[in-house]
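Let's practice the habit of predicting before peeking. Look at the sequence and jot down your guess about where helices and strands might fall. Then scroll down.
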Amino acid sequence: MAKNSGEICLSVSLSRQQAWDLAQFLKRTGFADFRSHAVDDEEARRMQNVAGKVRQSLKQLGYAPR
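Done guessing? Here is the structure:
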């Protein structure tokens, strides 16, 4: 359920391997990667911020590669 009308709650089912692979990808992805797919620096920062939220959620579930 969304916290407020401006937010959505995303739920996705992943295998353990998929969760680990996504966590690895998010760990290795940097600003330059987001910037290369964004229209400007601001959009790249927003994209990176969202990826950080997903990474944090994976970490809370025990998927936090070093």
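How did you do? Helices lie at 16-28, 31-35, 41-60.
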